[in-house]
Recover the amino acids of this structure.
């Protein structure tokens, strides 16, 4: 998945676990529970998914420096705040339960043939390369600018039960 989709799925986990509103999470609200949720999902996204700070900041409607603050304060908050620690533990457990249920590919040829059998199409006359990573395996899909969004959508559908990332080259 793209970084944006990965981060939005972590946000959905937090909304579900903490029973908060999605609108509040993305708003300018400074309520403690909302601030904790933002901090927790930012730390998980940075440490577990290696999602860029710009993506996190854009989705949360914050500046990038907030992500540095969340990461810096994580250890102290985890040790000193029971509310933060419980929120982190609950969200992280739900994240790991979902993430652990997803598979990865062990062979790049198998991954490419799986994608091609599930609606992804390669172009002989290509403008863009899509690099799909799953575990230690990667494959390249050749596509055109015109067909790019359709192919990304097809890849997301085909690999919904797999842990993966897509990069454009």
């Amino acid at each position: 998945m793209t970084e944006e989709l990965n981060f939005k799925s972590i946000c959905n986990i937090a909304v579900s676990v903490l029973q908060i509103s999605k609108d509040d999470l993305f708003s300018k609200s400074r309520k403690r529970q909302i601030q904790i949720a933002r901090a927790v999902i930012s730390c998980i996204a940075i440490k577990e998914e290696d999602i860029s700070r710009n993506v996190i900041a854009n989705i949360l409607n914050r500046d990038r420096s907030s992500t540095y603050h969340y990461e810096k304060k994580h250890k102290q908050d985890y040790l000193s705040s029971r509310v933060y620690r419980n929120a982190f533990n609950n969200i992280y457990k739900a994240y790991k339960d979902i993430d652990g249920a997803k598979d990865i590919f062990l062979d790049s040829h198998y991954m490419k043939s799986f994608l091609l059998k599930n609606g992804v199409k390669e172009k002989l006359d290509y403008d863009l390369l899509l690099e799909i990573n799953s575990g230690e395996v990667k494959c390249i899909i050749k596509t055109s600018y015109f067909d790019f969004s359709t192919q990304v959508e097809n890849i997301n559908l085909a690999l919904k039960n797999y842990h993966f990332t897509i990069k454009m080259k």
